[in-house]
Amino acid sequence: MNMASFTKLVLFSVCLSSFFTPGTAVPLRMRRDAASVTAAMEASKAALTQNAQQDAYIFDLTTSLNPTASTITTLPTVPANCAIYNGPDGECPTYFVASSVTYADCADAYTICQCSTANMSLSTAVDRLGRVPIGLRRYVATVALLGGDETRAYTLTTGDIHIFGDPQVDTWVHEAGHAYDFASGSPFSGTSEWLGAIKSDTCVPDKYSATSAGENFAQQIVMKVYSMTHNNTLPAGFAPDCMSHQLEYMNGLFLFNQNTLFGNTCAIEGSEPGARHTTAPLVLPNVLPLPPPPAPVPTSISNQQSTPVNSESTTGAPAQGPSAARKDNAAVALPFRHPRLMGFSTLLLAIWFSW
Questions:
Q1: Whole-angstrom Cα distance, residue 228 to residue 61?
Q2: How far apart are CA 252 and CA 19, in angstroms?
Q3: Phi, psi of 218, rounded to the nearest 5 degrees
Q4: Which of 72, 185, 204, 297 is 20 to 30 A distant from 28 in Cα terms?
Q5: Which of 55, 59, 53 minimizes the C-alpha distance to 293?
């Protein structure tokens, strides 16, 4: 083989190998124009027709996720994105107190605005937000703590989360999932790949998941986090077979890299765009092992029988779908999984032979 042929072979191999390397496949999500993004957002809001496996999520992630050390400083003024919700007819009818919260795994501080009528204490909110894995928490913007008789939450496209009542950690993970979905301006939950995965399946995790593709996406994130902290099993009461395409899609997200999701820094290279906290701390904290799963151990992914699960209500409640049994939680890169890749690879091969 002469040098020219060898060079062509090396170039072609490098290009083609990126499509076949295990653990690198991710859902294709191209930057779209404003009209297509708006259409995708609308598509993600439509109710789903798939059956709900359970009425709601009933598990709590609190004991499955480690807390994160933090420092809290009271801010002299309330930021505008909180202040606009203050007033007699606003979500906070009295007044806000704003705090800056810096976690040990990120130098970029979080802002938490607590209404004087909020049900949740600031220390509880800091603890629950700190239990959201850093790979996901880095997409959260400002948090507003509010009062009310109903426990609920919602997330704005800016990544701001509004918490009412006293929701548990699964709700915080769910809302962080929405922030992650919205972060790039081109939501995963509105892509043809995600909508196609849902359409190819016959079920979703729970009734809240069935309200829309967007809520199903956030619910699936909660269940994926549960699975990764429970030896890659699903909660009792959930079977993977009827939602296998949704689970495969989740497995393809860079977010679910075990080392970075549960790592010790918000500065993660190669991650999906739009993270709002990305500056590494001056001193990296030790990476703590995840707490052991509580007994009884959930049924294996390959042998699922079940019971219900609990979900909060509102434009961003808790919980999400199961995860696959791969311990590295990376994507399964199947040959020519996408037709576009197949066409591109064929074109490269043709150019090589005609060169």
A1: 11
A2: 13
A3: -70, -35
A4: 204
A5: 59
Banded model confidence at residue 35, pLDDT cuts 50, 70, 90: low
For tokens 């311990």, name the residue.
Answer: 327
CA separation for the pair 104, 64 (Å, rounded) = 19
Q: Model confidence over 180-215: pLDDT tens digits? A: 999 999 999 999 999 999 999 999 999 999 999 999
> Taking a C-beta distance cutoff of 8 angstroms, is the pair 268, 135 a contact?
yes
Report the distance separating Cα 50 and Cα 186, nearest Å: 24
Query: CA-CA distance, 178 to 182, in Å (whole number)?
Result: 6
User: Which residue shows structure tokens 């995840």?
Assistant: 290
Cβ pair 169, 183 in contact under 8 A: no
pLDDT value at 312 more than 70: no
Name the residue type at position 262. Answer: F
**CB-based contact 92:117 (threshold 8 Å):** yes
pLDDT tens digits, 220-237? 999 999 999 999 999 999
Q: What percent of the chain has pLDDT over 90?
A: 67
Q: For the chain, what is the HEC assignment? A: CCHHHHHHHHHHHHHHHHHHCCCCCCCCCCCCCHHHHHHHHHHCCCCCCCEEEECCECCCCHHHCCCCCEEEEECCCCCHHHHCCECCCCCECCCEEEEEEEECCCCCCEEEEEECCCCCCHHHHHHHHHHCCHHHHCCCCCEEEECCCCCEEEECCCCCEEEECCCCHHHHHHHHHHHHHHCCCCCHHHCHHHHHHHHHCCEEEECCHHHCHHHHHHHHHHHHHHHHCCCCECCCECCCHHHHHHHHHHHCCHHHCHHHHCCCCCCCCCCCCCCCCCCCCCCCCCCCCCCCCCCCCCCECCCCCECCECCCECCCCCCCCCCCCCCCCCCCCCCCCCHHHHHHHHHHHHHHHHC
CA dist 74 and 126 (Å) reads 13
